[in-house]
Write a structure and sequence with these properties.
Order of helices and strands: EHEHHEEEHHHEHEHHEH
Main location: cytoplasm
Radius of gyration: 17 Å
Oligomer: single chain
Structural class: alpha/beta
CATH topology: Rossmann fold
Subcellular location: Cytoplasm
EC number: 2.7.4.25
CATH class: Alpha Beta
GO molecular function: ATP binding; CMP kinase activity; dCMP kinase activity
Number of strands: 8
Protein name: Cytidylate kinase
Length: about 220
């Protein structure tokens, strides 16, 4: 079974999807981390992120592995390194590159082949797994999403302001919803869930209810 969770930045997708997968006993795919890893590799190699050919070359050369809660880049744990504001802001170049997306989409499908997965990102229900048995669109208000991101960055030791985080989030939202490939939008058959005012546990409880209901429906 494939459970897709799409939604804007800061909606709480990663943490909710990871816990949902744990409860279900499914594999968890944090697809956004793959684009972040390509971006980190490109920056470390001094690649101009606007050079699409060079960016495609990086994506072809690197090996990205998702190992439970860890993201490995050529065998190196980059789980924390890819979560900085710098990488978050720059990831749009990899996400906007058609050939990079094609490579990573193919990789995501291979990772989900023959196993039960919960996968989260921007285009999981619309592009990567359009035939997924259960599709969820997780969202939250702009202010709530920015505050969550601000707290997360501060806890990671970054020196940022709420205003800066909100402004960068707006730029990212605009890019996510207008990019030529893999843009963010709610699939017609996806169930929308707002996380405003809900604890992480309450969000996961709601998602679990949706998955179990879909299981019963498909079984019949």
């Amino acid at each position: 079974m494939v459970v897709t969770i799409d939604g804007p930045a800061g909606a709480g997708k990663s943490s909710a999807a990871r816990e949902l997968a744990r409860r279900l006993g499914f594999r968890f795919l944090d697809t956004g981390s793959m684009y972040r890893a390509v971006t980190l590799a490109a920056l470390e190699r001094g690649v101009d992120l606007t050079d699409t050919a060079a960016l495609e070359g990086v994506a072809e050369e690197v090996e990205i592995s998702l190992d439970d809660d860890r993201v490995l880049l050529d065998g190196r744990d980059v789980t924390k390194a890819i979560r900085t504001l710098e990488i978050t802001t720059a990831t749009r170049y990899a996400a906007d590159c058609p050939r990079v997306r094609a490579q990573l989409v193919d990789h995501q499908r291979r990772l989900a082949d023959g196993v039960d997965v919960v996968t989260e990102g921007r285009d999981q229900s619309t592009v990567v797994f359009p035939d997924a048995e259960c599709k969820i669109f997780l969202t939250a208000s702009e202010e709530v999403r920015a505050e969550r991101r601000f707290i997360d960055l501060v806890q990671r030791g970054e020196h940022v302001t709420r205003t800066d985080v909100l402004e960068k989030q707006r730029v990212r939202d605009q890019g996510d919803s207008t990019r030529a490939v893999g843009k963010l939008y709610k699939a017609e058959d996806a169930i929308e869930v707002s996380t405003d005012g809900l604890s992480r546990e309450e969000v996961v409880d709601r998602l679990l209810e949706i998955v179990e209901e879909r299981r019963r429906t498909t079984a019949n």
